[in-house]
């Protein structure tokens, strides 16, 4: 059983399919907010592998002794700015300074890594002040996506992988945010102590597979960069 | 710990409860009178928002009231009222979500009241309105207070809907339940405990006062 | 004068029987209604007060038409405003005796006078559940009187009162009813109970 | 769309409602009898779980019943019973969370019943128990069914607590509310709508049936 | 024989007055209790049935002690099992007449006989709110009798019955009470009502 941060669940399903094709071993994917998953793991959740949306939760589990290994970075996330209202995003900073109506959604910087990155990016471009009264803070990256796709907000900052998950019919504009504008979004994976209980070999096999060339290709395909 | 979220929560719960009182009293009255299949149908409909997970209810509300949607656009245009990411939106959502907890107990209590009380009042020339407020309502006091307490508490604890359509704006939609939720998510257990305690303490005092008041009001002068 | 002609089907497990009442009640009179238990006496009073509708017939009070099946006219209980003393009293559990009377009228001197007639001064602050059966019954009578009704309907209104109390009450009632120019219809099982009160009678079977 | 989550949800709601009935009936009875300050206190306490956001309540329950904690460890040791990440855990959480919605309306309804009914039954030599089940309870039927419907619906819609202490294990803790929530989170709006519709339809039918049944039962044979 | 000596304070706005009753009720007798409204007659019956506790005194039924303030003995209403006809009937809204009697006894022949005595056969399937006042009162009496009580307490039990019906009922009651070897205490306002029924009387003021 793999517990995965909400932002990576889509790609993980692809990986699971690929892994099954290669080895015949099936993988159950459980997604949720990283923080919540971490709390659950500390309190006995029956998960074998944990893919966090950042490093902190993975590190924390490691230092408290719930893992078999040090956390490893399985991918670096990319931040995009996006909209479904038809605006041209080439010059997105000017959209913010222009004080056009409509809200801007980012993840809650306190808990969501992409929210933190978005905040950093806004500061980097020195538009945070102007943006601040239009900002709304979503619970998670999925909620940002919902806000954007439903057109409730005119701009949103989210993960690039969203782009590859959408059906072709969806009206959607996006623009990559310069990676220099925010600290890299390192996503850490750990093999959990629980994995020893059952099918340890299969668990280990999948964990190793995450860092294989085949997996990396799939990650790239969904807009992640690999360190 | 900040006090704004707590204050916002209490304000939201109080406003919601008052609006629900105003809505539910006539609704419960209407439902309690000779029941037709149509009323049974309406009553079942009122219960439906409960069945959805709050955040999904929030999602549907979000779609309906987003500036793209017709109702949302219309409200924005004509009243400059936005129901997403605003305190008003939270009130609306809480009202929809807690409605059955107010209406149903009142309706049952009214249905249990002996018919002869209203009949006596009617023969005295009293209108249905006056009869309702001076005879029927005072005689279901205990149910009324129970409904008020449940609605108030339920609104304080609500966070699914609020999380979806609120957007965590300091001072307008970041209520206490969201603050606690964030604190837990953020490993700030101490802060979460603190918020919980304060919310508990305040609510506990309110609830106890209501119950004691209710108990004394129900008693006769000679007991 | 109240002119009554009503037909009403009463459903029971025995089958359906038809209640038929025709009567002209002179202004200011006290009419005693009697008949076996279950005959429809209470139903009759309820039809006059407007709480139950007859199937056919008409009720005319003075020159005002209260009910006429032919023209689908049916005044509400509020419009008829008949004083009604219910067989089970129907007192309001939330009100003290004084509040009952205040609910009926704003006329404080009348309230004082009624409390005195009913010997209820000492119980003005009691709620119904703190009153004895006889006290409850007296309160029900006083409440109906407090309306200054033109028509007073009493359903077994003296059943819980002892002979002495009842006779004193009747003496006072006669005075006050004359003052109000009210007509009275009283359902009673005991011939003796309405002696010296009723001046005419009506049998229902 | 899969049927397992729907089926799980209905099972959870049904079991929770039955357990709550068994718990709440004596509790409501006890609370409705001459109220002391102590009872007022207990009643207020019962309302408290409502005040917390469900996921936070879930968090506290998770900590209490985790194998690390004492109660969780003890249960695991002696009964091989785990209350986290198991269906049993969901039942426990739902029971705590929905308790006031069952207890309070029943308590109010019992308190409104005339005392003379129980007195009459006592003089007939009937125990308090028999009196309760054959006189008091049948006379608050309408409130009872209302409470049952509210509890059932509320449990179906619950997802905050359930998400926290249940995880989303296929076939045991992934209930319909979580499936819908996930679908929305994954932008699978079509699937979310489908789940919502099915849940709505099933609940609607149940609720309507209960209300119609209740309405007929309340009526006399001659009406 | 029932040996009664009780003291009970009654609180009213008039102040507190003490109700004192001392009496010895012979086995099989019918005692009529009378006195002004509000004197405490209903309270007296409730104390005997165990629904209200006196402050001081004792109640002894046969050789069984029911209440003794001195030794803090107080049997529950269930243990005393006195048949009680309440002034306000206290019928169960959820039960039909037949179900009321079945609740009291499993003895079907007795039920049939009681329904006949009360002329209630046709109403066996009615719930209280579908019964007339007199029918409700008769049901209350039948329900108390269905217990085969050794002691029957009746509070204004004939107030809603007409003279003819009451006399027939009393004739039947006397037979059945003798059969049950029951003693009876009946509160009544009307001297006439208990004529030919009560064989002794007790005044409460
Ligand atoms: N719950 C109560 N609280 C306060 N006072 C009460 C209560 N119940 C009865 N009383 C008072 O106690 C007194 C005696 O009442 P009780 O019902 O025994 O009278 P009673 O002799 O049966 O009168 P009646 O013939 O009118 O039925 C009355 O004055 C009444 O006001
Ligand atoms: N709600 C009801 N449903 C069915 N039948 C009813 C209803 N109310 C009354 N009845 C029946 O109608 C008949 C007349 O009732 P009503 O109360 O008018 O009698 P009454 O003359 O007042 O009798 P009493 O002297 O016993 O009070 C009775 O046989 C009764 O059983
Ligand atoms: Mg009658
Ligand atoms: Mg009495």
TrEMBL record, chains B, D:
Domain of life: Bacteria
Main localization, broad class: membrane
Membrane-crossing segments per the record: 6-29, 41-63, 83-103, 144-165, 194-213
Pfam families: BPD_transp_1 (PF00528)
Sorted UniProt keywords: Cell membrane, Membrane, Molybdenum, Transmembrane, Transmembrane helix, Transport
UniProt xrefs under SUPFAM superfamilies: MetI-like
One Gene Ontology term, aspect cellular component: plasma membrane
GO MF term list: molybdate ion transmembrane transporter activity
Subcellular location: Cell membrane
Domain ABC transmembrane type-1: 6-210
Alphabetical list of Gene3D superfamilies matching this protein: MetI-like
Protein's membrane topology: Multi-pass membrane protein
Membership in a protein family: Belongs to the binding-protein-dependent transport system permease family. CysTW subfamily.
The protein's role, per its UniProt record: Part of the binding-protein-dependent transport system for molybdenum; probably responsible for the translocation of the substrate across the membrane.
Protein name: Molybdenum transport system permease
Organism: Pedobacter westerhofensis
Upper lineage: Bacteria, Pseudomonadati, Bacteroidota, Sphingobacteriia, Sphingobacteriales
UniProtKB/TrEMBL annotation, chains C, E:
Keyword annotations from UniProtKB, A to Z: ATP-binding, Nucleotide-binding, Transport
UniProt xrefs under InterPro entries: AAA+_ATPase, ABC_SmlMolc_Importer, ABC_transporter-like_ATP-bd, ABC_transporter-like_CS, P-loop_NTPase
Key word Ribosomal protein present: no
Residue ranges of domain ABC transporter in the record: 1-205
UniProt keyword annotation of rRNA processing present: no
Pfam families per record: ABC_tran (PF00005)
Molecular function via GO: ATP binding; ATP hydrolysis activity
PANTHER family in the cross-refs: SPERMIDINE/PUTRESCINE IMPORT ATP-BINDING PROTEIN POTA (PTHR42781), SPERMIDINE_PUTRESCINE IMPORT ATP-BINDING PROTEIN POTA (PTHR42781:SF4)
Protein name (record): Molybdate transport system ATP-binding protein
């Amino acid at each position: 059983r793999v517990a995965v941060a909400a932002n990576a669940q889509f790609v993980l399903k692809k990986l699971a399919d690929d892994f099954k094709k290669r080895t015949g071993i099936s993988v159950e994917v459980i997604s949720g907010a990283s923080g919540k998953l971490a709390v659950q793991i500390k309190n006995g959740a029956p998960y074998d592998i944990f893919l966090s949306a950042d490093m902190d939760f993975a590190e924390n589990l490691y230092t408290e002794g719930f893992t078999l290994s040090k956390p490893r970075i399985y991918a670096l996330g990319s931040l995009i700015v996006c909209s479904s209202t038809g605006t041209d995003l080439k010059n997105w900073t000017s959209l913010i300074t222009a004080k056009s109506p409509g809200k801007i959604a980012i993840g809650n910087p306190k808990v969501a890594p992409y929210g933190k990155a978005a905040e950093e990016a806004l500061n980097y471009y020195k538009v945070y002040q102007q943006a601040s009264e239009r900002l709304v803070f979503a619970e998670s990256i999925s909620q940002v996506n919902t806000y954007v796709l439903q057109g409730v907000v005119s701009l949103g900052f989210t993960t690039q992988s969203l782009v590859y998950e959408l059906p072709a019919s969806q009206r959607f504009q996006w623009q990559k945010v310069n990676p220099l504008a925010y600290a890299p979004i390192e996503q850490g994976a750990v093999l959990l102590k629980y994995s020893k209980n059952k099918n340890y070999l299969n668990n280990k096999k999948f964990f190793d597979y995450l860092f294989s060339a085949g997996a990396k290709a799939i990650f790239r395909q969904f807009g992640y960069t690999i360190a | 710990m900040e006090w704004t979220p707590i204050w916002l929560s209490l304000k939201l719960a109080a406003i919601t409860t008052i609006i629900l009182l105003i809505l539910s009293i006539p609704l419960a009255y209407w439902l309690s009178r000779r029941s037709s299949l149509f009323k049974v149908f309406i009553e079942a409909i009122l219960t439906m928002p409960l069945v959805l997970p709050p955040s999904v209810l929030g999602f549907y509300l979000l779609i309906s009231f987003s500036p793209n949607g017709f109702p949302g656009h219309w409200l924005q245009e004509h009243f400059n009222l936005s129901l997403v990411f605003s305190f008003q939106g939270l009130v609306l959502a809480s009202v929809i979500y807690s409605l059955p907890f107010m209406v149903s107990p009142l309706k049952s209590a009214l249905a249990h009241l002996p018919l002869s009380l209203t009949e006596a009042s009617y023969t005295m020339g009293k209108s249905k309105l006056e009869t309702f407020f001076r005879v029927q309502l005072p005689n279901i006091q205990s149910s009324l207070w129970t409904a008020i307490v449940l609605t108030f508490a339920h609104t304080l604890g609500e966070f699914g809907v609020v999380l979806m359509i609120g957007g965590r704006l300091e001072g307008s939609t970041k209520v206490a339940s969201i603050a606690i939720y964030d604190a837990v998510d953020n490993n700030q257990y101490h802060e979460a405990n603190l918020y919980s305690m304060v919310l508990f303490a305040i609510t506990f005092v309110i609830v106890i006062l209501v119950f004691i008041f209710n108990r004394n009001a129900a008693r006769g002068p000679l007991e | 004068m109240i002119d009554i002609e009503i037909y009403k089907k009463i459903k029971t497990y025995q089958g359906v029987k038809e209640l038929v009442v025709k009567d002209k009640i002179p202004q200011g009179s006290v009419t005693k209604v009697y008949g076996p238990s279950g005959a429809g006496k209470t139903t009759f009073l309820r039809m006059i007060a407007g709480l139950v509708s007859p199937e056919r017939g008409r009720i005319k009070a003075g020159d005002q038409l209260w009910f006429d099946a032919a023209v689908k006219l049916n005044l509400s209980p509020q419009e008829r405003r008949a004083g009604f003393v219910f067989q089970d009293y129907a007192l309001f559990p939330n009100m003290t005796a004084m509040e009952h009377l205040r609910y009926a009228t704003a006329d404080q001197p009348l309230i004082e006078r009624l409390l005195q007639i009913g010997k209820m001064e000492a119980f003005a602050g009691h709620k119904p559940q703190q009153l004895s059966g006889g006290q409850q019954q007296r309160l029900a009578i006083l409440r109906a009187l407090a309306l200054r009704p033109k028509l007073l309907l009493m359903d077994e209104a003296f059943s819980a009162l002892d002979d002495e109390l009842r006779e004193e009450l009747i003496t006072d009632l006669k005075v006050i009813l004359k003052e109000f120019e009210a007509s009275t219809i009283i359902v009673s099982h005991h011939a003796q109970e309405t002696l010296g009160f009723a001046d005419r009678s009506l049998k229902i079977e």
